[in-house]
From TrEMBL:
It comes from the Bacteria. This is ABC transporter domain-containing protein. The keyword Transmembrane helix does not apply. PROSITE patterns: ABC_TRANSPORTER_1, ABC_TRANSPORTER_2. Residues 6-245 form the ABC transporter domain.
Length: 267
């Protein structure tokens, strides 16, 4: 039995009087994909940001590849970034607008693996090809790419240093549905080919169904349900999960009933 690549125990994060994350625990096995679902404000993003070392937990632990994740110290951060990379909803802000996509994809290779300029150029070409971007797209500036192409570029940049875990925070939410499908298919193929693990944060249950094996459902910072994604979506046990499912418009959808159920749950 292999060890989890990522283990989160009793994570708590408070902002003043708001408890954004309240006693969250989960394990992620190598090659697995875990969904974190819940509505806006349920604590998904804060959890993801803690995993990536962008936020320090108030209490609790994150263990990455058998060692405590650290947010202090350049070496510790570099090690952590080498193991876990994060992809945001729109990576536009994290690309240098004056650099070509290829230069941005190369940057982490320079930081983490060194090697000659020629080796790096070869790796960049390989990465762009892996995510379905042409050499021409590589020579473009981020602003000249479509949202879907930019997300492909972000994936290429994140994969360059061969991390064990990718944390994706609403990474397809801003894309058109057909482009969403392409990116999800790409992510699925990459996982199968490389054995990388995903933590996939999304409010969209259809997306989570496609891309994850297991999921946790968060509400007000707490995990209210966990298990296999398919089971959760077919046979939700917690009233909040049922409410999330009932909130998706479908034939016979009754928004009045959903609103009533929510009032009962909040009471
Ligand atoms: N930096 C911060 N300062 C103060 N409160 C914060 C901060 N970040 C998050 N919060 C609060 O923590 C709670 C959880 O927010 P979080 O963004 O993690 O939820 P979410 O489920 O990811 O929602 P969304 O999808 O809207 O980002 C919210 O009440 C939010 O207002």
């Amino acid at each position: 039995m292999s060890e989890p690549v990522l283990s989160v125990k009793s994570l708590v994060k408070t902002f003043g009087s708001v408890t954004a994350v309240d006693d969250v625990s989960f394990d992620l096995m190598p090659g697995a994909s875990l969904g974190i679902v819940g509505e806006s404000g349920s604590g998904k993003t804060t959890t993801a940001r803690i995993l990536a070392g962008l936020e320090r937990p108030t209490s609790g632990t994150v263990t990455l590849d058998g060692r405590p994740a650290a947010s202090r110290g350049r070496r510790a951060r570099l090690r952590q970034a080498g193991l876990l990379q994060m992809i945001f909803q729109d990576p536009y802000g994290s690309f240098d607008p004056r650099r070509t996509v290829a230069q941005s994809v190369e940057e982490p290779l320079r930081l983490h693996s060194g090697g000659s300029a020629r080796d790096r150029a070869a790796r960049v070409a390989e990465l762009l090809d892996q995510v379905g971007l042409s050499a021409r797209a590589g020579d473009s500036l981020p602003r000249d790419l479509s949202g879907g192409q930019r997300q492909r570029a972000a994936i290429a940049r994140a994969l360059g240093i061969r991390p064990r875990v990718l944390v994706l925070d609403e990474s397809v939410a801003a894309l058109d549905v057909s482009i969403q499908a392409q990116i999800l298919t790409l992510l699925d193929e990459l996982r199968r080919a490389s054995g990388i693990s995903y933590v996939f944060v999304s409010h969209d249950l259809a997306v989570v169904r496609y891309i994850t094996d297991t999921a946790i459902v968060m509400r007000h910072g707490r995990v209210v349900e966990r298990g296999e994604t398919e089971r959760i979506l077919r046979h939700p046990r917690h009233p909040y999960t049922r409410l999330l499912l009932d909130s998706i418009p479908s034939p016979g959808w009754d928004p009045g009933r959903v609103a009533g159920d929510r009032r009962a749950l909040d009471a």
